[in-house]
Automatic annotation (TrEMBL):
Residues 5-74 form the Bacterial purine repressor N-terminal domain. Residues 117-251 form the Phosphoribosyltransferase domain. This is Pur operon repressor. The lineage of its organism: Bacteria, Bacillati, Bacillota, Bacilli, Bacillales. The keyword Transcription regulation applies. Keywords: DNA-binding, Transcription, Transcription regulation. Pfam families: Pribosyltran, PuR_N. GO terms for biological process: negative regulation of DNA-templated transcription; negative regulation of purine nucleobase metabolic process. Belongs to the purine/pyrimidine phosphoribosyltransferase family. PurR subfamily. It comes from Thermoflavimicrobium daqui. Homodimer. InterPro entries: PRTase-like, PRTase_dom, Pur/Pyrimidine_PRTase, PuR_N, PurR_Bsub, WH-like_DNA-bd_sf, WH_DNA-bd_sf. GO terms for molecular function: DNA binding.
């Protein structure tokens, strides 16, 4: 096979690395594919690392030794993240999105693959330092968000159901109270879907008082699982939250059905990231 030109190597290596986030790839894999010395591959990786870091796409992590290699760690810079969330705020501030009960129509946003990809990239940045075994969400609107995050973190998605399904096999079920309506509802999870002691990231699209998320936390307790974080796309106003610790991208401060007004601002994600940057 003809030896690859350096420009071609750089393009192909970047494609491979960014297409498999968090996957450790031995340097010999690249060396053998491109018929190049490991020293040349290392120089190529340094160039790729420089560009990824400068443009805010992430970093490369290199591990030495016999079991070593390189892996792509997705990250998004705070400026880019702010632009994405500001666009999300603009969409959500449209009064035509107001639904009965103080909810907002978001199905079109949750079907926007470009927006989902960028949100997934943001969440992967927020929880990059956590060891995560699985991502949990509740059916149905949180599912696209969960998979967007799972792509970048390379972990499975676990879906909590409101109703028991025969195809789920044996399930664990908990009762939870809706924080807004105070109605009791059931949340179920297949026993086969999660190993005991797993570290789980909860992702949801919309949180009012947090009853559903609190129910998922209680459900994880039945598996002796650890909640490593909670990510919410939209945090809606409520007199009292049932969940103490969470990271939100957008905060809705007012939904006025009579005056057809929606007030939206940046979520606490930017407060968390600001504190992190100051520490670093």
């Amino acid at each position: 096979m003809d030896k690859w030109k350096r420009s071609a190597r750089l393009v192909d290596m970047t494609r491979i690395l960014m297409g498999a986030p968090h996957k450790l790839i031995p340097l010999t894999t690249f060396s053998e594919k491109y018929s190049s010395a490991k020293s040349s591959i290392s120089e190529d990786l340094a160039i790729i690392e420089e560009v990824l870091s400068r443009e805010g796409y992430g970093t490369l992590e290199t591990l030495t030794g016999a079991a070593g290699g390189v892996r792509y760690i997705p990250k998004i810079n705070i400026e880019h993240a702010k632009k994405v969330v500001e666009q999300l705020c603009d969409h959500l501030s449209n009064p035509e999105r107001i639904l009965a009960g103080g909810f907002l129509y978001m199905s079109d946003l949750l079907g926007d693959v470009d927006l989902l990809d960028q949100i997934g990239h943001i969440w992967a940045t927020v929880f990059a330092k956590e060891k995560i075994d699985a991502i949990m969400t509740v059916e149905t609107k949180g599912i696209p968000l969960a998979y967007a995050v799972a792509y970048y973190l390379r972990v499975p998605v676990i879906i909590v159901r409101y109703d028991y399904r025969v195809t789920e096999g044996s399930v664990v079920t908990v009762n939870t109270v809706s924080g807004s309506s105070h109605k009791i509802k059931q949340l179920s999870l297949s026993k086969r879907s999660l190993q005991e002691g797993s570290r789980v990231l909860i992702i949801d699209d919309f949180m009012k008082a947090g009853g559903t998320i609190q129910g998922m936390i209680e459900l994880l307790g039945e598996f002796n699982a650890e909640v490593v974080g909670v990510g919410v796309m939209v945090d809606s106003p409520a007199t009292e939250k049932l969940v103490d610790s969470y990271v939100s991208l957008v905060k809705v401060t007012e939904i006025n059905s009579k005056q057809r007004r929606v007030c939206v601002e940046l979520g606490n994600f930017f407060d968390v990231e600001g504190e992190t940057n100051e520490e670093n």
